[in-house]
Amino acid sequence: MIGPLTPSEGHPTPVAWLVFSIVPLLLTLAGAVVARPWPVRIALLAEGIAILTNRKWHDGQLSSLQAALENIACDAAFMIYPVDHASIKRNTVEQLVRAFRTRAPSQEIVMPRHKGADGHPVIVSAAIRSEFFEARTAREVIYRVPERIRMLNVRTSSIFEDFDTPESYEDCVRKFRARK
Fold it and tell me: Are 54 and 64 in contact (CB under 8 A)?
């Protein structure tokens, strides 16, 4: 199996693409990255990007988000972007950023949707950041008040394609190499 940052035949892997294409964009939004796998950490350090370590990782996924929120400006919007959604293209992220910047005042969250299914990444206004410290999951906060979500219809299913097993990772690599 190909390692997450190991290029094969001169092509970057999905995770390597995520680190070098999307992370700089995310940093312009929030200024912090939580990274646990060492190859990702090394790649980010090589680019001069500050890394946060979530020492409470055993408390679950929300603890990583909370660690990031504790290290960014209180008035900063932030993006929730699971690293296993590596097939998302930069264009999709840029569409979300534009939608966030042009949202109505009552819309605190921008979320992509494809054929009626919600996905990632999600951009969240600083106005509701405190809710993430009171909730049991990020999902609880995101869906608490549906009226504050601006849904952005996108033309890609990559917003909900993740990899959780060696087989789904290999499928992700195959799709990544096949794209234009």
Answer: yes
Contacts of 112 (CB under 8 A, 6+ apart): 92, 95, 96, 118, 119, 120, 121, 122, 151, 152, 153, 154, 159
3-state secondary structure of 109: strand
Domain, as residue range, for 113? 14-178
The CATH number of the domain holding residue 152 is 3.90.550.10
In whole angstroms, give the CA distance from residue 166 to residue 110.
31
Task: Name beta bridge partners: 110.
Answer: 123, 150
Whole-structure pTM value = 0.73
* pLDDT of residue 155 exceeding 90: yes
What CA–CA distance (Å, rounded) separates 1 from 110?
35
Has residue 157 been placed in a domain?
yes
- Percent of the chain beyond pLDDT 70? 71
Name the phi and psi angles at 142, rounded to 5: -55, -45
Q: Is residue 2 part of a domain?
A: no
> Per the omega criterion (within 30 degrees of 0), is the bond before 39 cis?
no
Tell me which DSSP letter residue 72 carries. S
- If DSSP codes are grouped into helix, strand and coil, which group holds residue 121? coil
